[in-house]
Amino acid sequence: MNPGDLIVRNATWLDIEAGDYCEGDLEIRDGRFVDVDAQPSVSDVREIDAAGAYVLPGLIDCHVHVTAHTADLPALGTDSPNYVAMHTARLMGDMLDRGFTTVRDVAGADYGLHDAQVEGLLRGPRLFFGGKALSQTGGHADPRGRGESYVDSSATCSHIGRVVDGVDAVRAAARDELRKGAHHIKIMAGGGVASPTDRIDSTQFSLDEITAVVEEAEAANRYVAAHAYTGRAINRALRAGVRSIEHGNLMDDESVALFLEHDAFVTMNLVTYWALMEEGREFGLSQENWEKVSVVLDGGMTALERAYRGGVNLCYGTDLLGGMHRHQSREFALRAEVVPIIDIIRSATSTAARLIQREGELGVIAPGAFGDLIVLDRDPLRDVSVLADARPSQVIQAGKVVAAGG
Ligand SMILES: [Zn+2]
Questions:
Q1: Parallel, antiparallel, or unpaired: how do β-strands 32-35 and 100-105 relate?
Q2: In total, how many domains does the chain have?
Q3: What is the pTM of this model?
Q4: Beta bridge partners of 53
Q5: In terms of domains, do 96 and 171 share one?
Q6: Residues that place a CB less than 5 A from ion ligand 1
Q7: CATH at residue 179
Q8: 29 is in which domain, residue-wise?
Q9: For residue 398, what is the DSSP state?
Q10: Dist CA 232 CA 168 (whole Å)
Q11: What string of DSSP letters covers 55-121?
């Protein structure tokens, strides 16, 4: 019996594009859907009965940090990579239990974690990674306080970023991350919350530096994801060819036009500000950084509404740190205040798959796509809490039942 073979009988499954349910049996062979409406009569494979349940494609979280076992990111750089990996295994296993069969790590994860997941050593979602984020001196991934001068940029330290300045240096760093297998390059294009010396309203990297990274990513058929909050930071990044904006909480109307013009994506993550307000200090966020949170939280909901009404490609993201990871599914409930549930589900499936360059292969139930599914007890289109507050009763990844019994 092939472990990647499975038949899901009597499925009420969501056709993501149509936004409606279909009924039937789903057949997965060797990890991929072969048929979505036939009546397979074969008896040589494992079967599960999904009668009465609701079946969705496996979820994709487009903004995670699987190594961020603490909210004190600057301190992460002094941890042993081996120690961090043990935490990562726990965090990724939990993500899978919540129904996230794929995640995109946007600073911190590397080829080692990716390979461990592929080889089955590490139980967790499929991992798309960008290696270390590129940050200018004093930028969002510069871990130093004002009195510190040393930056550990060794390949094996656990810090999520590397500090580089100048066109030649950022180009070399981008090439180096691509050499190590990065699926995308992450840059810090503006100020952030969990960083010691920058301001939320700063822009980071020169246009020449951003353009150089975009050139390198595109040369490798990859793309650039940029951390940016303000309209000023977002708009210059989009003009320079950045394809994926992370956060975007303070975007303006011009940003919306630029997203559409460039067919770019925004991955918001309201839940992390919600969680940081509630619990950030308890998990290591400094008082000073905690105070930056309210600025971006207020803007976030307005920006989500603006982006949704404008027709921007929206992706599901969470960006949770440390012990706050457990709120990963709460983003569904926060977004539901502004966005119809079917469109939130699309942001965590089909739109997300397009962002990570796996359209038709992930985030959809269709012949040829990976057999990644979640089975829910209630209809999420009527009751978002089945996604936001409960775990799927079964999680299936490449035809294998990897979690059961929510
Ligand atoms: Zn992040």
A1: unpaired
A2: 2
A3: 0.96
A4: none
A5: yes
A6: 319
A7: 3.20.20.140
A8: 6-58+361-404
A9: T
A10: 24
A11: EEEPEEEEEE-TT--SS-HHHHTTS-HHHHHHHHHHHHHHHHHTTEEEEEE-SS--HHHHHHHHTTS
CA of 276 to the centre of ligand 1 (A): 13
What is the CATH classification number for the domain harbouring 34?
Answer: 2.30.40.10
Residue 64 lies in a domain: yes
When pLDDT is cut at 50, 70 and 90, the band that residue 152 belongs to is: low
Question: What distance in angstroms lies between residue 52's CA and the mean position of ligand 1's atoms?
Answer: 38
Residue 336 lies in a domain: no
Q: How far is the CA of 90 from the centre of ligand 1 (A)?
A: 19
pLDDT digits (tens, 9 = 90+) for 335-386: 999 999 999 999 999 999 999 999 999 999 999 999 999 999 999 999 999 9
- Is the domain of 378 the same as that of 250? no
**Ligand 1 mean position to 364 CA, how many Å?**
25
CA of 135 to the centre of ligand 1 (A): 13
pLDDT in tens, 202-248: 999 999 999 999 999 999 999 999 999 999 999 999 999 999 999 99
Instruction: List the structure tokens of 116.
Output: 């461990």
Give residue 50 CA to ligand 1 midpoint distance, Å. Answer: 36
Clarify whether residues 310 and 278 are in a common domain. yes
